[in-house]
Amino acid sequence: MVQDPSGEILVSTDDHICTITLNRPDKRNALTVKMVETFRTTVEKVGTAGDVRVLVVRGNGAGFCAGMDLRELAAQRESGAVDLNALEHALEALERCPLPSIAAVQGDAVAGGCELALHCDLRVATDTARFAMPLARIGIAVPVTLTWKLVDTIGAAATKEMLFTGEAIGAEQALALGMVNRVVAAPDLDRAVADLARAIAHNAPLSVRAMKSFVQRLAEERRSIRRDDLEATALRVRSSEDAREGLAAQRERRPPNFRGN
């Protein structure tokens, strides 16, 4: 597998298990546009690799992923509107990957990082992990299909509370909501993920892939729902003055002053 020259996306394969590692720990693995593109192409290549049976996604350092890089988002907003299309396409590639995928979540999984974990088939989290979608705190709306992914996972009521408040959900609450499959002590994460990945990899690969495709058909049906009006609403939010103010306030570490325009 071709490695990312920047070293921000690491790829390794062992015993039919491919691990993609976000490697920007000093920035809590915040995703740049380049990282998102590299991640998408890597997932697509892994999905066609004949020697790989399971995909693991993890982050280096104390956190899983802090979402999109705020400096890049702010620059996009100054140019007109925040563009999350590349992230949506990368997450769609992950969801549609024929291989079963596992997210190894330690620390925080925030915004796009939370969605990255959700778009894996299974999630193993440490007891210190937290999941958050605080986009309302910076004046941005979660993209339509990513909102639907949350609803699919934890239901409408929990999704509304998570999005309306922006508050983080701890590991045990995430387990109760069905957001994660297993919670383990932080020192046990790598071993727990490896054991789960090996258990899947040692099963019949044609069976596993077939059954994943059966489950995924429901997700495909969701994409056929008319949503042009919702996408237009999302664009208005991403190009709003509130989005400009929210991103500026985040960078300047001050409370935002939202005006609803």
Percent helix among the residues?
Answer: 40-55%
| Tally of separate helices | 11
CATH superfamily caption: 2-enoyl-CoA Hydratase, Chain A, domain 1
Highest-level CATH class:
Alpha Beta
Return the domain count.
1
Radius of gyration: 18 Å
Task: Characterise this structure.
α1 (33-47) packs parallel to α3 (85-96) and α2 runs antiparallel to α11 (241-252). The chain has one domain (1-187, 204-261): 2-enoyl-CoA Hydratase, Chain A, domain 1 (Alpha-Beta Complex), CATH 3.90.226.10. It starts with 8 loop residues before the first strand and ends in a 9-residue tail after the last helix. It has a six-stranded mixed beta sheet, sandwiched between helices. A three-stranded mixed beta sheet has the order 5-7-8. The protein has helices at residues 33-47, 70-79, 85-96, 112-118, 144-154, 156-165, 171-177, 189-201, 205-222, 228-238, 241-252; strands at residues 9-14, 17-22, 54-59, 101-105, 108-110, 122-126, 130-132, 169-170, 182-184. The mean pLDDT is 93. The relative contact order is 0.13. It contains eleven helices and nine strands. It has 261 residues and is an alpha/beta fold.
Characteristic terms for this protein:
261 residues; alpha/beta; 2-enoyl-CoA Hydratase, Chain A, domain 1; six-stranded mixed beta sheet; three-stranded mixed beta sheet; 11 helices; 9 strands; 48% helix; 15% strand; globular
Secondary structure blueprint with pairings:
Blueprint: E1 9-14, E2 17-22, H1 33-47, E3 54-59, H2 70-79, H3 85-96, E4 101-105, E5 108-110, H4 112-118, E6 122-126, E7 130-132, H5 144-154, H6 156-165, E8 169-170, H7 171-177, E9 182-184, H8 189-201, H9 205-222, H10 228-238, H11 241-252
Parallel strand pairs: 2-3, 3-4, 4-6, 5-7, 6-9
Antiparallel strand pairs: 1-2, 7-8
